[in-house]
Amino acid sequence: MPHLNAARRHLVHFTVNGRMVRAEVENRMLLSDLLRHEIGLTGTHVGCEHGVCGACTVQIDGKPARACLTLAQQIRGSDIRTVEALATDPAVLSPLQAAFRRHHGLQCGFCTPGILMSLDALLRERPDAGRKEIREHLAGHLCRCTGYATIIEAALDAAEEQRKEETPNA
Predict the structure, then answer these.
(1) Of 11, 114, 160, 163, whose CA is between 20 and 30 Å from 50?
(2) d(Cα 96, Cα 116) in Å, to the nearest integer?
(3) DSSP 83-144
(4) 3-14 pLDDT tens trace
(5) Which keywords fit this entry according to its UniProt record (predicted)?
(6) pTM strictly above 0.85
(7) Coil, strand or helix: which one is 55?
């Protein structure tokens, strides 16, 4: 990372949800603040601001990452995906979002965007993920409302749907 001058803002280029973005950021600006306050992508929630709760989870180059622990400077040239990217049409839920709806995988919804982004990354990498792996993958997320059972059921359902879509009709 280059040496930065604290007296000025710095230019960063990156892709967010498939769109090229150019932004001027301060040295200590967090990715969560850049996404929410500068770009207007408010689906990324900020909870604990210490990387513990997982509400701010986004994908950086396909991997889940805490936006509250990532400096905006660190994302130069990266591909960022936020929860807004899950559904290609704002009027139609993604299969994972639809499974959350069917299984009541959310209540207050505050933690949901981060959980969705973590599960999306897991199911892209491991579409055959089972209950134990999903549970372990969710260990970095705090949800005060659901008790996680419905979230796990939704993830298993979405994984099953994904496998059906990937299997050619016989």
Answers:
(1) 11
(2) 7
(3) GGGS-SBTTB--HHHHHHHHTT--SS-SSHHHHHHHHHHHHHH-TT--HHHHHHHGGG---S
(4) 666 667 889 999
(5) 2Fe-2S, Iron, Iron-sulfur, Metal-binding, Oxidoreductase
(6) yes
(7) coil
